[in-house]
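Example S7 (structure tokens).
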């Protein structure tokens, strides 16, 4: 078994859980803690939601007791890390998934939900969302938004957000949000760029299923080659990354890479 070639970063934790339910429970606890601290410090809590299927269990937990009433929902602002180029009611929409499992169960005000408007042409959707981030976070030119929490999933080939291997949006070119053609899926996406994700206070990666085991090993233990494994781009300068992975996804990790929760 090859030994890990990456020095573990001081601000990175990798924990192994039995299944997605245990991951969701831990993620919910982390979110409740972060929300309380953010509201105490800044009077609000900002979180960027992930798409895909893994987060559904977490969103359902946050919408129900005991976590629901522990969350400062009236001071919480929801954002999205990426979106498919479909309308918000499309079965593929990340917003639709989050709305069905969480948002529709809360009584948030419209200005608390910052959706990526992918019913529009993809460049306009990206520009509008970037402007929304600039306005909400009151950004000066060159400044990055700082989410209190960003939720991220990893694909079975190591993509994160909609930053897929070999795609143009891996080069941020100073943008906060970019459209991204993903040839292997024959589709457009809109995604925040890696510098935005890296400016978050806490990034929570949730990775499940055995089909991700090799990519996860590559991301955590292999050489730093983010063109191949874009999840390696997540290296926050002044934030923390917590990987919550299930036993199946952790199946190929070398001893010592991760700790069993
Ligand atoms: C998307 C997500 C994507 C997702 C991973 C993992 O729009 O699909 O942003 O990056 O997080 O593909 O997806 P699962 O959670 O379904 O494994």
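Recovered sequence:
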């Amino acid at each position: 078994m090859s030994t890990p070639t990456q020095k573990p970063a001081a601000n990175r934790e990798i924990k192994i859980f039995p299944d997605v339910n245990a991951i969701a429970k831990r993620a919910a606890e982390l979110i409740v803690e972060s929300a309380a601290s953010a509201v105490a410090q800044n009077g609000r809590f900002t979180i960027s939601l992930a798409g895909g299927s893994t987060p559904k269990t977490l969103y359902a937990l946050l919408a129900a007791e005991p976590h629901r009433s522990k969350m400062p929902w009236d001071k919480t602002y929801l954002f999205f890390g990426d979106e498919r180029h479909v309308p918000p009611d499309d079965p593929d929409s990340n917003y639709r998934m989050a709305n069905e499992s969480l948002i529709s169960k809360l009584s948030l005000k419209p200005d608390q939900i910052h959706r990526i408007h992918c019913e529009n042409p993809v460049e306009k959707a990206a520009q509008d969302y970037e402007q929304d981030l600039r306005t909400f976070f009151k950004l000066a030119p060159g400044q990055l938004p700082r989410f209190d929490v960003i939720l991220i999933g990893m694909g079975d080939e190591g993509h994160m957000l909609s930053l897929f291997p070999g795609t143009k949006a891996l080069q941020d070119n100073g943008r906060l949000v970019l459209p991204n053609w993903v040839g292997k899926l024959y589709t457009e996406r809109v995604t925040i760029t890696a510098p935005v994700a890296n400016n978050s206070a806490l990034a929570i990666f949730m990775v499940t299923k055995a089909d991700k085991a090799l990519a996860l090993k590559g991301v955590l233990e292999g050489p730093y080659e983010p063109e191949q494994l874009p999840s390696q781009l997540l290296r926050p300068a002044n934030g923390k990354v917590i990987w919550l992975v299930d036993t199946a996804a952790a199946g190929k990790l070398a001893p010592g890479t991760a700790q069993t929760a």
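Notes on this example. The chain has a mean pLDDT of 96.
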